[in-house]
Amino acid sequence: MVDVRLTEVCGEDEAPLFWDSVWDPLKGFADWQVAAADEAGNVGGLRAKAMLATAVTLCLFTDKRVEPTHPLFWLCDGDPRGWWGDGVDVRDDLGETEMGSLLWLLARAPMTINGIPVERWAEQFAREALQPLLDQGAVVRMDVAATADTAAGRLYLTVNLFGRDGQAVYAQRLALVWKQITG
């Protein structure tokens, strides 16, 4: 489970507990950045200003373990993946669930899987992965939409998250590399 503070930015006297994973749309992945000069309490550290964006990146792009009973298990090629930390400390009594998403299964998926368009699978996987942000109250509503661009070999995922006042607190269009298998 990913914990998110409601006040995104650390206070002057508060040490940053998490660092930002900054999404680079040109490279297609997230990476860390060095703290900026305006982070006086974090000189020489990693940037820690966008906790919600980092939580979204972790939720969507950490590979969740796929169970053998899942209808898309055949797409894992024998490697069910999963984050090692889920084997150490997932507390059901606190409502915790395994971290990440099954979006990685779609990297080589066909356009239609079990009669369902790949876009619908992506939306479902994203909603499941982002559910902890709703459960924790970090956001109150999410809109997720996926579109496939087969010519470019990409699956685009648009994620919009909303705060208690109804305003968007996160809006991003993410591109997942997507290589269609044939046959």
Major sheet strand order: 5-6-7
Could you give the distance between the termini? 38 Å
Count of strand segments: 7
Report the oligomer.
single chain
What general form does the structure show? globular
Radius of gyration: 17 Å
For the biggest sheet, the summary is: 3 strands, antiparallel
Strand content: 15-25%
Sequence stretches where pLDDT stays below 50 over 5 or more residues = 1-17, 179-183
Please describe the structure with a list of short key phrases separated by commas or semicolons.
183 residues, alpha+beta, two-stranded antiparallel ribbon, 16% helix, 21% strand, disordered C terminus
Describe this structure in words.
With 183 residues, the chain is of the alpha+beta class. The chain has one domain. It has 2 helices and 7 strands; from the N terminus they run E-E-H-E-E-H-E-E-E. It has helices spanning 51-61, 118-135, and strands at residues 22-24, 29-31, 112-113, 116-117, 141-149, 154-162, 168-177. The strands form 3 sheets. It has a 3-stranded antiparallel sheet with strand order 5-6-7, with helices on one face. The protein has a two-stranded antiparallel ribbon with strand order 1-2. It has a two-stranded antiparallel sheet with strand order 3-4. Helix 1 (51-61) crosses helix 2 (118-135). The longest helix has 18 residues, at 118-135. The protein is globular, with a radius of gyration of 17 Å. Mean pLDDT is 79; it is low at 1-17 and 179-183.
